[in-house]
Amino acid sequence: MKPSGLSTGCLIDVFVACLVVVNVGRDAGVAARAAVVGMNGGDSSHTPAQLVSLDVYYETLCPDSVQFIVQQLHPTLQKVGQIMNVSLIPFGIATERKQGDSYVFTCQHGAKECRGNTIQACIIHLLTLTDPALPLKFIYCMERSRDPSAAGAACAIELGVEFAPIATCASTKLGNELQHVMAQRTLSLNPKLNWVPWLVLNGVHTDEIQRKGSANLLKLICATYQGEKPSGC
């Protein structure tokens, strides 16, 4: 169901699809490492059990995804990131099929989006161990750019990150496998995703969560958090 008050730009359309082929290989060992990407403010006074879990399923070139990351997610993390555990899953309304020992991806907004999704999957995989908050900063930088799919190198310079390993990842077997992991996470959702960004709060997706999170994520996170409210609330 389409949440009320949102545009129709990134609703699933089974009649219109943009095709792209991305061929790399598979490495089963990558899957476990890429499946869960958490980031929070690092405040040790909050235990993991107390954190509000938010999974964001999105597409790099979807206008609604861009708007949510730039105008809702980033500002909310700036204010109350210490009570949040955020997972980013770049795939969205896309499909995959096996071809030989690699995967072929079909993305809603074409080849550039598949490229952007894979780059961001690599960013999440490669940078999370360095700093759990760094992938979100990098992805925010990309999404606020005129062309998110082409902004990786410039954002790497801005953040002081080496881009070459990310670019290598995105164009090789590793990137293909990471995108496969994101695809499997997305395609296994219940209820099934039919809109992006798709929000899962503490393991649950409802129309009400989607509507409230899209309109005022900060208010939703603060209302959900059961501990002492931080000043950002």
UniProtKB/TrEMBL annotation:
Domain of life of the organism encoding this protein: Eukaryota
Assigned keywords, A-Z: Glycoprotein, Secreted, Signal
Signal peptide: 1-25
A single Gene Ontology CC term: extracellular region
Coiled-coil intervals: none
Keyword RNA-binding: no
Pfam families: GILT
Transmembrane segments: none
InterPro entries: Interferon-induced_GILT
MF annotations from Gene Ontology: oxidoreductase activity, acting on a sulfur group of donors, disulfide as acceptor
This protein's record includes keyword Glycoprotein: yes
Subcellular localization(s) per the UniProt record: Secreted
Chief site of localization: secreted
Protein family (similarity comment): Belongs to the GILT family.
Listed name of the protein: Gamma-interferon-inducible lysosomal thiol reductase
Originating species: Hypsibius exemplaris
